[in-house]
Amino acid sequence: MIPWKCKQCGTPNDGGACLCVGCNHIRAQRLVLTSEVTDHTLVFQVGTPVGRGGLLKAVGDDSRYASEPQFIVSPRLELGGWMVEHAASAANPTFHNGTALEHGPQPLKQGDRLSIGPKRAVLKVTIENLDSLP
Ligand SMILES: [Zn+2]
């Protein structure tokens, strides 16, 4: 990952870190999920349950495989970034990079893929940094 310079104190930081080593400022990140089928995007800035209704516009027909909610995304920046968690009540498994999500939140990385089962409603993960200097 590309190193970043803290907006608050100017310290250069490691690309993977969210917490500035100079001043403990937490770099804000937003999560963008892009449908591989339609190219529609879903943008998240806060923790959000994602289900059939929210997925309908992004993935179209494949949203019928989703429960309400299907998975939860949350910005756990103190733990290093955005996380995804399968909703325990969902009928179909949520897949992360081709493997069913187990219990508990898992970290999301640039270029990861989320899907329902191995190949429905495939979403590509993009993480955008909002407040670091160029
Ligand atoms: Zn700083």
Give your account of this protein's structure:
- The chain is mainly beta.
- It has a single domain (29-133), classed as Tumour Suppressor Smad4 (Sandwich), CATH 2.60.200.20.
- Helices cover 6% and strands 40% of the residues.
- The protein has one helix at residues 52-59, and strands at residues 4-6, 12-13, 29-35, 41-44, 48-50, 71-76, 81-86, 94-96, 99-100, 106-107, 113-116, 120-129, 132-133.
- The strands form three sheets. Strands 4-3-12-11-8-9 form a six-stranded antiparallel β-sheet, with helices on one face. A four-stranded antiparallel β-sheet has the order 5-6-7-10. It has a three-stranded antiparallel β-sheet with strand order 2-1-13, with no helix packed on it.
- A hairpin with a 5-residue loop joins strand 3 and strand 4.
- The longest helix has 8 residues, at 52-59.
- The chain is elongated, with a radius of gyration of 16 Å.
- The two termini are 14 Å apart.
- 25% of the residues are buried.
- The mean pLDDT is 91.
- The structure holds zinc ion.
- Zinc ion binds at residues 6, 8-9, 11, 20, 22-23, 25.
How do you describe this structure in short?
The protein is mainly β and 134 residues long.
